[in-house]
């Protein structure tokens, strides 16, 4: 089965102790390892203001995890664990390989269109002679 890239972002309550967040990340990591996946990157972005109120909270502790997996059921299991964890107030999973494939496809289309387009060569504008400009300006001034 094809290996896929996922980005998992979740937000914990701002008053959640750091140890509890680490424990949650370790639990998710063990679950991923059991299913044959691996975390590529784990970032704790800290407590930040939320774009809108979630469960009457204005701030949350953001955690970002990037992982590779060939098991689609893993994401469902991770989301289930996040859903039942009291500290987690919001989460989102994004399948990144689909976005990368879409970008590559658009890039190929652009290349094909560019290859079809005839190359236009525009002649360089003729350089104006310095004397001609002075004469025409002087002629305009004299005509006034």
Please report the first level of CATH classification, the CATH class of the domain at 4-91.
Alpha Beta
**Tally of separate helices:** 4
The named CATH superfamily of the domain at 4-91: Ribosomal protein S6/Translation elongation factor EF1B
Number of strands: 4
In N-to-C order, the SSE pattern is EHEEHEHH
Question: What distance separates the N and C termini?
Answer: 84 Å
> Helices and strands: which structural class?
alpha+beta
Largest sheet entry: 4 strands, antiparallel
Task: Enumerate the spans where pLDDT stays under 50 for 5 or more consecutive residues.
Answer: 132-144
Name the CATH architecture of the domain at 4-91.
2-Layer Sandwich
What name is given to the CATH topology of the domain at 4-91?
Answer: Alpha-Beta Plaits
Rg on CA atoms, Å: 29 Å
Shape: elongated
Question: Strand share of the residues?
Answer: 25-35%
Strand order, largest beta sheet: 2-3-1-4
Tell me the helix content. 40-55%
Mean pLDDT: 84
Structure notes:
This protein has 4 helices and 4 strands, in the order E-H-E-E-H-E-H-H. With 144 residues, the protein is an alpha+beta fold. The protein has a domain at 4-91: Alpha-Beta Plaits (2-Layer Sandwich). It has a 4-stranded antiparallel sheet with strand order 2-3-1-4. Strand 2 (38-54) and strand 3 (57-69) form a beta hairpin. The radius of gyration is 29 Å and the shape is elongated.
């Amino acid at each position: 089965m094809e290996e896929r890239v996922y980005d998992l972002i979740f937000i914990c309550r701002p008053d959640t102790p750091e140890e509890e967040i680490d424990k949650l990340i370790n639990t998710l990591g063990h679950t991923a390892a059991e299913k044959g996946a691996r975390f590529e990157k784990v970032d704790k972005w800290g407590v930040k203001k939320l774009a809108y109120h979630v469960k009457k909270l204005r701030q949350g502790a953001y955690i970002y995890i990037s992982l590779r997996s060939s098991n689609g059921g893993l994401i469902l299991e991770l989301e289930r664990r996040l859903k039942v964890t009291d500290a987690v107030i919001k989460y989102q999973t994004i399948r990144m390989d689909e976005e990368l494939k879409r970008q590559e496809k658009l890039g190929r289309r652009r290349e094909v269109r560019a290859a079809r387009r005839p190359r236009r060569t525009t002649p360089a504008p003729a350089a104006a002679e310095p004397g001609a400009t002075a004469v025409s300006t002087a002629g305009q001034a004299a005509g006034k």
